[in-house]
């Protein structure tokens, strides 16, 4: 059964406003990453980092906090409601931003980043839960595509904003921007978003219930399969985020032009989400996910072969490859999240936590591995794309055999 926006959201809270608010909440993660990318060399130099690859940890440790936080916020939201979970997450995010802003060494900055990730996981996981509370099936995937499209557009301007702030006010002021956005999101959410979990449906928080909920989700073949694929797909994306600054600014010498090329690739992701909002209603989530994974794997294998023969490619060729690949990734994000969440029903809060936590932990390990392999060439990144998308296609085949075989 599918629901129209009007049937599940109060008339005072318009559908478009719901999309915008959800996009802002989930965009805190993207903003916490993309605005800092141009500032990584300055941060490392300011805090005494010697190896350029170590600057990548400013990006990757954020996902460690997210992996831990997502496991907590789901059952917490199932116990006290969705709105308190968002408020707690925003408060932790605010504290992490302050710690990073005032950091006197690299280790303290990383601690602040972990706390940022811990806090940002609350709004992120509650975005998925709020959508799941109000939509089902392909309609849910369509709503997630709209939210994801707005969310993906953030990287179009975020690196440019971060670069501008860094030049005129220093890299620490970027964390000041995060503080302001957290306040705006909290006030908007408090006054405009109704609670979607009635008191009658709330479950008391207990460790035993937490374990039983985790076990119920983990033992569901389809949910866990799609969670693994999410981790693999997001892992290749983290690998790109970790090494993007070095590839574009160091390897291709783009300097301050880096944000513009980053924006082109972000537009490819965003446009795929918009296209998916239409295609998913006709072809379904599984078919589109299967095609996207197969295409990404095949194209990456071909590009890896070219790199083995030639060693390097012109910037234009790289941009074509990444644009097409990220279009496929954009098709996957909304569909895989919806496929993983659909069977969970009343356990949406717990399910979103487990799915988010496991997939983020997998993506952190794989993305950090790809990023730390960076050696001044494209091969670690492209080869990582081929391996992870191929593994994802294999997991999808495993799911399909069980469901339809």
Q: Total strand count, please?
A: 0
Give the oligomeric state of the chains in this entry, treating copies of one chain as homo and distinct chains as hetero.
Answer: single chain
The Cα radius of gyration reads 20 Å
Mean pLDDT across all amino acids? 86
Spatial gap, N to C terminus: 25 Å
CATH topology: Growth Hormone, Chain: A
The sequence of SSEs as H and E is: HHHHHHHHHHHHHHH
- The total of helices stands at 15
Low-confidence stretches: 1-12
Name given to the CATH homologous superfamily = MFS general substrate transporter like domains
Total domain units: 1
Anisotropy-based shape = globular
CATH class category: Mainly Alpha
SSE topology sketch:
Blueprint: H1 5-8, H2 15-34, H3 40-46, H4 57-80, H5 82-101, H6 106-134, H7 137-169, H8 172-192, H9 207-218, H10 221-251, H11 258-283, H12 285-310, H13 315-341, H14 348-372, H15 379-404
Helix pairs in contact: 2-6, 2-7, 2-8, 4-5, 4-6, 4-14, 5-6, 5-8, 6-14, 7-11, 7-13, 9-14, 10-13, 10-14, 10-15, 11-12, 11-13, 12-13, 12-15
Question: What are the key terms here?
Answer:
single chain, 405 residues, mainly alpha, 0% strand
Summary, kept brief:
With 405 residues, the chain is mainly α.
Please describe what this structure looks like.
With 405 residues, this protein is mainly α. The protein has one domain: Up-down Bundle (Growth Hormone, Chain: A), CATH 1.20.1250. The protein is 82% helix and 0% strand. The protein is built from 15 helices and no strands. The chain has helices at residues 5-8, 15-34, 40-46, 57-80, 82-101, 106-134, 137-169, 172-192, 207-218, 221-251, 258-283, 285-310, 315-341, 348-372, 379-404. It starts with a helix and ends with a helix. Mean pLDDT is 86; it is low at 1-12.
């Amino acid at each position: 059964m599918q629901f129209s926006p009007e049937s599940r959201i109060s008339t005072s809270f318009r559908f478009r406003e719901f999309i915008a608010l959800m996009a802002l909440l989930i965009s805190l993660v993207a903003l916490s990453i993309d605005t800092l990318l141009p500032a990584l060399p300055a941060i490392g130099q300011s805090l005494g980092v010697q190896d350029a690859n170590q600057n990548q940890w400013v990006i990757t440790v954020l996902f460690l906090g997210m992996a831990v936080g997502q496991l907590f916020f789901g059952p917490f939201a199932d116990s006290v409601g969705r709105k308190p979970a968002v408020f707690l997450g925003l408060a932790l995010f605010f504290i992490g931003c302050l710690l990073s802003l005032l950091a006197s060494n690299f280790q303290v900055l990383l601690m602040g980043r972990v706390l940022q990730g811990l806090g940002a996981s609350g709004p992120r996981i509650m975005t998925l839960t709020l959508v799941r509370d109000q939509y089902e099936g392909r309609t849910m995937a369509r709503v997630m595509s709209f939210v994801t499209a707005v969310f993906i557009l953030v990287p179009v301007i975020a690196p440019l904003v971060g670069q501008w702030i860094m030049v005129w006010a220093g890299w620490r002021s970027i964390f000041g921007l995060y503080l302001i956005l957290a306040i705006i999101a909290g006030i908007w959410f408090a006054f405009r978003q109704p609670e979607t979990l009635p008191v009658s449906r709330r479950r008391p928080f207990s460790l035993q219930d937490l374990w039983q909920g985790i076990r119920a989700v983990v033992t569901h073949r389809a949910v866990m399969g799609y969670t693994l694929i999410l981790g693999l797909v997001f892992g290749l994306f983290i690998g790109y985020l970790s090494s993007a600054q070095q590839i574009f600014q160091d390897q291709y010498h783009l300097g301050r032009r880096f944000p513009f090329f980053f924006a082109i690739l972000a537009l490819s992701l965003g446009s795929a989400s918009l296209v998916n909002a239409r295609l998913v209603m006709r072809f379904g989530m599984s078919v589109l996910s299967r095609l996207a994974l197969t295409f990404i794997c095949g194209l990456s294998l071909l590009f890896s072969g070219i790199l083995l023969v030639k060693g390097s490619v012109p910037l234009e060729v790289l941009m074509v490859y990444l644009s097409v690949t990220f279009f496929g990734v954009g098709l996957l994000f909304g569909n895989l999240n919806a496929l993983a969440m659909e069977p969970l029903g009343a356990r949406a809060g717990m399910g979103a936590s487990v799915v988010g936590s496991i997939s983020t932990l997998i993506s952190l390990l794989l993305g950090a591995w790809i990023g730390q392999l960076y050696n001044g060439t494209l091969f670690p990144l492209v080869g990582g794309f081929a391996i992870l998308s191929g593994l994802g296609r294999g997991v999808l085949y495993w799911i399909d055999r069980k469901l339809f075989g």
